[in-house]
Amino acid sequence: MTYPDPFDDRSPWDEKPETPANEEKPLPNSTSGNPPFEIGVTLKAASGFDAEWLTPRVSGHTAEETARRGAELLAAMKNEGLIDYASKAAAYAREQYKGGGGNPGGGGAPKNFSGGRVQRRDGGGGQAAPQVAGDGCPHGRSLVSKANWSALFCNGEDGDKCEPLWKQKDGSFKANK
Questions:
Q1: Cα–Cα distance between 49 and 42 in angstroms, integer?
Q2: Would you say residue 21 has pLDDT above 50?
Q3: Quick check: is 162 in a domain?
Q4: Contact at 8 Å (CB) between 40 and 55?
Q5: Angle of CA points 174, 175, 177, to nearest 5°
Q6: Residue 168: which residues within 8 A CB-CB, separation 6 or more?
Q7: I need a surface site. Which of 1, 96, 99, 169 has the fewest CB within 10 A?
Q8: In-domain check, residue 19
Q9: Boundary of a domain, candidates 49, 74, 96
Q10: Distance between CA 32 and CA 26 in Å, rounded?
Q11: Residue 112 placed within a domain
């Protein structure tokens, strides 16, 4: 490499650099920095919680660019078979699962709503309530247990509820009267 002579009468700044005739111009939508627009799409295969989900995300510097990229991504996922492949992989994973319990049907039985509340179809709520001698509640009771307390609550309507029975240190249940 040779350096220009600093004592020459000609300045290197006076010379125009050579530019190629067919220089490609950058795309108008491609700017540096994080794109301000983002779309997340959730493709859910069924209504249950155990159904497979695909959640692709696209981003762009304009709303139009982001929408166009989203449409291109979804079309490519369909055309390349990614959606079918994900469904088959999820089905295979479910077949291999050896764990216990769970809800294999997804979603369970439909809920019954009455009086603005969900009613259980089996007639009970939570754990089976122990029988308490001298309890005069005609509505039945449900056991609610938390980390440091337990109580038997009346299953009656709001205006007709009986006093709750609180678990004592000896294991019995009594009303706080």
A1: 13
A2: yes
A3: yes
A4: yes
A5: 130
A6: 174
A7: 1
A8: no
A9: 96
A10: 11
A11: no
DSSP conformational letter for 127: B
- CA geometry: angle 38, 70, 93, nearest 5 deg: 95
Cα separation, 4 vs 97, in Å, equals 74
**Whole-structure pTM value:** 0.37
Ramachandran angles phi, psi of 39, nearest 5°? -125, 130
Query: Does 53 score more than 90 pLDDT?
Result: no
Q: Residue 21 CA to chain centroid, in angstroms?
A: 52
**The pLDDT value given to residue 124:** 47
pLDDT of 28 over the 70 cut: no
What total number of domains does the chain contain?
2
Task: Give residue 116's pLDDT band: very low, low, confident or very high (50, 70, 90).
Answer: low
Closest among 42, 31, 104, 106 to 74, alpha carbons compared: 42
